[in-house]
Design brief:
By secondary structure, this protein is mostly helical. The protein is built from 4 helices and no strands.
Length: 115
Protein backbone atom coordinates (compact mmCIF):
# COMPACT_ATOMS: atom_id res chain seq x y z
CA UNK A 1 0.00 0.00 0.00
CA UNK A 2 2.84 2.36 0.86
CA UNK A 3 4.47 1.78 -2.52
CA UNK A 4 1.28 2.79 -4.32
CA UNK A 5 1.08 6.06 -2.36
CA UNK A 6 4.73 6.81 -3.10
CA UNK A 7 4.14 6.05 -6.79
CA UNK A 8 1.16 8.44 -6.90
CA UNK A 9 3.13 11.18 -5.14
CA UNK A 10 6.01 10.69 -7.55
CA UNK A 11 3.65 10.78 -10.54
CA UNK A 12 1.98 13.97 -9.28
CA UNK A 13 5.41 15.55 -8.78
CA UNK A 14 6.39 14.61 -12.31
CA UNK A 15 3.16 16.10 -13.62
CA UNK A 16 3.75 19.36 -11.78
CA UNK A 17 7.31 19.52 -13.09
CA UNK A 18 6.16 18.82 -16.65
CA UNK A 19 3.52 21.54 -16.37
CA UNK A 20 6.09 24.02 -15.06
CA UNK A 21 8.32 23.26 -18.03
CA UNK A 22 5.42 23.70 -20.46
CA UNK A 23 4.40 27.01 -18.85
CA UNK A 24 8.01 28.20 -18.97
CA UNK A 25 8.07 27.33 -22.67
CA UNK A 26 4.82 29.22 -23.19
CA UNK A 27 6.27 32.31 -21.52
CA UNK A 28 9.50 32.01 -23.53
CA UNK A 29 7.68 31.80 -26.87
CA UNK A 30 5.34 34.64 -25.89
CA UNK A 31 8.27 36.82 -24.77
CA UNK A 32 10.20 36.19 -27.98
CA UNK A 33 7.14 36.97 -30.07
CA UNK A 34 6.52 40.17 -28.11
CA UNK A 35 10.13 41.25 -28.68
CA UNK A 36 9.71 40.52 -32.37
CA UNK A 37 6.90 43.06 -32.71
CA UNK A 38 9.06 46.15 -31.96
CA UNK A 39 11.87 44.66 -34.05
CA UNK A 40 9.53 44.21 -37.00
CA UNK A 41 8.38 47.81 -36.56
CA UNK A 42 12.01 48.96 -36.70
CA UNK A 43 12.48 46.83 -39.81
CA UNK A 44 9.39 48.46 -41.33
CA UNK A 45 10.68 51.97 -40.59
CA UNK A 46 13.96 50.95 -42.23
CA UNK A 47 12.14 50.33 -45.54
CA UNK A 48 12.22 46.54 -45.11
CA UNK A 49 15.97 46.35 -45.59
CA UNK A 50 18.75 45.57 -43.16
CA UNK A 51 20.74 48.56 -44.42
CA UNK A 52 17.82 50.95 -43.86
CA UNK A 53 17.11 49.48 -40.43
CA UNK A 54 20.73 49.91 -39.35
CA UNK A 55 20.72 53.53 -40.55
CA UNK A 56 17.51 54.13 -38.64
CA UNK A 57 18.95 52.55 -35.47
CA UNK A 58 22.16 54.60 -35.86
CA UNK A 59 20.09 57.78 -36.09
CA UNK A 60 17.97 56.73 -33.11
CA UNK A 61 21.04 55.84 -31.02
CA UNK A 62 22.68 59.19 -31.76
CA UNK A 63 19.57 61.07 -30.72
CA UNK A 64 19.16 58.91 -27.62
CA UNK A 65 22.71 59.61 -26.43
CA UNK A 66 22.36 63.35 -27.14
CA UNK A 67 19.06 63.59 -25.23
CA UNK A 68 18.92 64.51 -21.58
CA UNK A 69 18.23 62.00 -18.81
CA UNK A 70 14.56 63.01 -18.59
CA UNK A 71 13.99 62.41 -22.30
CA UNK A 72 15.93 59.12 -22.17
CA UNK A 73 13.75 57.97 -19.28
CA UNK A 74 10.64 58.90 -21.24
CA UNK A 75 11.87 56.92 -24.25
CA UNK A 76 12.69 53.94 -22.03
CA UNK A 77 9.17 54.06 -20.62
CA UNK A 78 7.64 54.13 -24.09
CA UNK A 79 9.77 51.18 -25.16
CA UNK A 80 8.83 49.19 -22.05
CA UNK A 81 5.13 49.90 -22.64
CA UNK A 82 5.41 48.78 -26.25
CA UNK A 83 6.96 45.48 -25.18
CA UNK A 84 4.44 44.98 -22.34
CA UNK A 85 1.46 45.69 -24.58
CA UNK A 86 2.82 43.37 -27.26
CA UNK A 87 3.40 40.68 -24.58
CA UNK A 88 -0.16 41.10 -23.33
CA UNK A 89 -1.53 40.99 -26.87
CA UNK A 90 0.51 37.95 -27.81
CA UNK A 91 -0.48 36.25 -24.55
CA UNK A 92 -4.13 37.05 -25.24
CA UNK A 93 -4.00 35.38 -28.63
CA UNK A 94 -2.06 32.41 -27.19
CA UNK A 95 -4.33 31.98 -24.15
CA UNK A 96 -5.87 28.77 -25.47
CA UNK A 97 -2.52 26.98 -25.56
CA UNK A 98 -1.88 28.05 -21.95
CA UNK A 99 -5.34 26.81 -20.98
CA UNK A 100 -4.60 23.46 -22.65
CA UNK A 101 -1.37 23.10 -20.67
CA UNK A 102 -3.12 23.75 -17.38
CA UNK A 103 -6.13 21.54 -18.16
CA UNK A 104 -3.87 18.73 -19.37
CA UNK A 105 -2.19 18.67 -15.96
CA UNK A 106 -5.56 18.67 -14.18
CA UNK A 107 -6.62 15.71 -16.35
CA UNK A 108 -3.45 13.79 -15.45
CA UNK A 109 -3.99 14.49 -11.74
CA UNK A 110 -7.55 13.14 -11.92
CA UNK A 111 -6.40 9.97 -13.66
CA UNK A 112 -3.67 9.42 -11.06
CA UNK A 113 -6.04 9.95 -8.13
CA UNK A 114 -8.67 7.63 -9.59
CA UNK A 115 -6.14 4.88 -9.99
Amino acid sequence: MRGLTTHRSFAVGQGVLATCIRITGWFAVTALASLGIPLSLAFTIGSFSVNGTMHHLLNLAGRYVAAGPERQSQFDGILVWIVLVSFAGTGFFRRRSLKNVILQEADCDRRIQNG
